[in-house]
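dude i think i finally got it to work??
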Amino acid sequence: NGGVIKFLENYKKSVVPTGSSTYEDHDGIAIALPWIIQSSSASSTDLPWDRLKEGAEILSTNPMALKHYEVESVLLHGALNPELIPDPIANVISQYKDTYPDIVAEIKAVQNGKDSGMSIKQLVKEFGLACPLPGSFQGALASIIGATSYEDAIRENIMAGGDSCSRGLILGAYLGAKFGLAGIPNEWLHRVNNIDQIILDAKDILS
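look at this
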């Protein structure tokens, strides 16, 4: 992984932040996810992104990547707070239409593809099977938009091929927030080592 390799190089050189300025993959959002979830207050539509991006910058300081990570953090905040933000996709479009019109255009391209009847597999192929942004962001949205269950969306993402794990970073977090723990099949949960303690630790962090 290019971002991890550059992180290790920068860390040894005491470079801060440690992230790569050229890294355009999706993985940087994974490091920030726990902070985003913990900071997702139900009393505000805003997230302290300037602080949260410190997590993402461990792997990437690339401006294009950071913009996508920011938008994804707001999407996740919406999924975590449905009473406050009933439509997270519409909220992001409204919030970033002037700030990040390029990302809003990416979202609308996915919406148009879904409206035209394209399958998730077709959309993922259209936007890019590899891990770099913006393709992995759009590929994840193909499964997020219109999802009716965690299990079906995850399966469709896997079957779409390519770097499904990169798309799965935000897809799994978003749909986990939307459908809750009950939406994840028990047989999947029990394949994770020490899952009971992981769930307890997660509850402690968020309580």
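The radius of gyration is 17 Å.
im so relieved honestly
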